[in-house]
Each structure stands twice: as C-alpha cells, then as structure tokens.
Task: structure prediction
Amino acid sequence: GIPSVLLWATSTHPDGIFIAVLEEVTADGASRFITDGAIRASHAKVSREEGWDSLGLPYHRGLEADAVRLDPEEPLELAFNLEATSYVLGAGSRLRLSLACGMKGTYQQPDGFPDEMPLVGIRAGGAHASFLRIPAILPDASKFEGSLSIRAGDSRAGDSRAGEGRAGVSF
Result:
C-alpha cells in the first residue's frame, strides 16, 4: 500500500524540504529500509482530486497560487505520502520513522535558504498530533482458497454469471 505522514511543523525559515524514511528495526537491532517520501513545505496545501481522494492520499497541485509558509510559532500541516510498498515485517521487529530536513549541498534547498540550518520543530499530541498512517493486512487476509476459471477472451473477468462471453467464477 501507500503509507502517508502528517506532520505539524514550525521553522525559523519560511520554506524547506521534509524527508521521511520508514525502516524496519529487527529484533537484533538491524535496520532495513522500507520506503521514503518528501515534501517541500511551500507546496503543503492539499487540494481535492478524485483519484487521490479515493485512495485517501493528500494531493498537492504545486501551483504558485497555493504556496504556504512555515512559521516559527504557528505549526503548518504537512501531509504527504511515501512511495508505495509491499513489505512483510519480521517477527519481533518494530517500525522506525526517521525525519530529516536535508543538508545544504545534499538536497536542493529552496531559494534564499540560509547558510545556518533553521530551527525546525515537529509537534505531537493534542490538536497538532503528527502521525504515520500505514495500510496493513493480516497475514492470512490475502490467502486464496478455491478455484477461479475465466473464459478466454472475456473482457469482463469480474462477472460471475455463466454464459456466452461471460466469465465463470467459483470459490
């Protein structure tokens, strides 16, 4: 599925890059990369778009008219998705979400980014609860039992009615 992150952020600079990395931490302490995602704070305005809405994901048009600014006191909502993944978490493992704002010379920072890294805050709890949303299924939820038969050349494979030009599906 597609994990998503909601951060409530403050910063002494009005724009910046926010990067989230999701990792598995195994029972013996080893770390394994799962997926990552990023957002530029000035592009944080969420717009409505049917395809994204149907997936429950934030959509950012990235238009100049939608630009927003970080503030040192008032938190800005940064909602963004990570790259889609399919991952089986090992027994005894935990998830770790690491957040970074990049480093000058490593990530392309916004115009006018100061030489000294700004002070960034991430809020948690109350009205400004930051969180990670992870789509998950139980280990046996995708188990298939039964049989499936589809008549060759049928473009309506989901139709369970038997007959001419229709698929026959049985479980």
Summary: Helices lie at 50-55.
